[in-house]
Amino acid sequence: MAGKLTAAQGTGILLVTANVGSLFEDPENLQKTWLREFYQTVQSHKPHFVAVHCQEVGGKNYEASMSHVDSFVKELLSSDAMKEYSRARVYLDENYKSQEHFTALGSFYFIHESLKNIHQFDFKAKKFKKVVGKETCSETLESTPSLEKEKFPQDYFPECKWSRKGFIRTRWALADCAFDLVNIHLFHDASNLVAWEKSPSVYSGTRQKALGYVLDRITDQRHEKLPYFVFGDFNFRLDSKQVIESLCSTATMQTVRAADTNEVDKLIFRESDNDRKVVLQLEKKLFNYVNQDVFRENNGTSLLEFDKELSVFKDRLHELEISFPPSYPYSEDSSQGKEYMNTRCPAWCDRILMSPFARDLVLKPENEEKSIVYDNIGPNVCMGDHKPVFLSFRITAGAGKPNANKHKCCVVQ
Fold this sequence. Notes:
The protein contains 6 helices and 18 strands. It is an alpha+beta fold. It has one domain: Endonuclease/exonuclease/phosphatase (Deoxyribonuclease I, Chain A). The strands form 3 sheets. Strands 7-3-4-2-1-18-17 form a 7-stranded mixed β-sheet, with no helix packed on it. Strands 5, 6, 8, 9, 10, 11 and 16 form a 7-stranded mixed β-sheet that branches. The protein starts with 10 loop residues before the first strand and ends in an 18-residue tail after the last strand.
């Protein structure tokens, strides 16, 4: 695992985001594969500090899956692969009976034994405290002083009777530098037909409002402003109208309406010639495109021009270059590791974003380019409907020293 820290080596950081809902539908197959691939990523990058942000912990049927959640957490905390991580903090929002608070978010933090000096912020006492031992907090995270948790107000996404979307923020200090880590889950596209109606879609506007709310909260006056990393399931989608017009540029569109309501039920795009072959069939929860390879060739990056939701926040959030395929919606069949489901247009939902000052920490001149990796986990195997996404980098010694105070990092004794 990670060797002893040296000033030249820096502190290895591994950030992972994973929507794990599928794991609790098929724990026997998917959970084992997920954990194996995660451990391999840890062993490959040898980080000193690991942060794993999960969404949809427990899956759709939380009450029935609780025992699977417990075994998943127990395995992570006690596995041989993680045995050199002598300290851990696990925060699980398990209070599913509280509709006004429940987010199904889970945040896991692992600290390697060679990392001697690490502190976590107490938001109530407004000071950093040394991290020792392993602790798991669940149930009422609202009263846990080592984090801030909020669920988005119901009126942010009125279509959904009971949304579990929200965020959890923690604050850490290591290698003489402090930063915030925010676990986030934004609103999905409820209907492909509604998403197609206009550009940008009504759903992207809802996500924009919620993300703006989070950024305002984590940079308000209550606490010192620090560099921050926001990673989770943003549910960012390609601009539906534009991507469909591009994929079906030579096709003709047929509109099928429901007999009882006369509302649009499906859209069928056919080639003008070639026996009027169906190119795309679009329904509320169906996106059946004739050629999935377009989302895999060159990692689907030709479609990044339609990935526009982050551009609204270009002054506040940065992202390293994407060189992996869309992270959602993969088949949940354990034998179909590379196949997408035909429920939604594949998109880069799972992301690791950072503030300008956090980007400066990641891209320090002393950092060798090859030591920074932004990629997905388990590209060839089934990891559930979302592929986890990770960022591996090193914080060089002195990044947060007084002469770098423009980053507003604080030196913690």
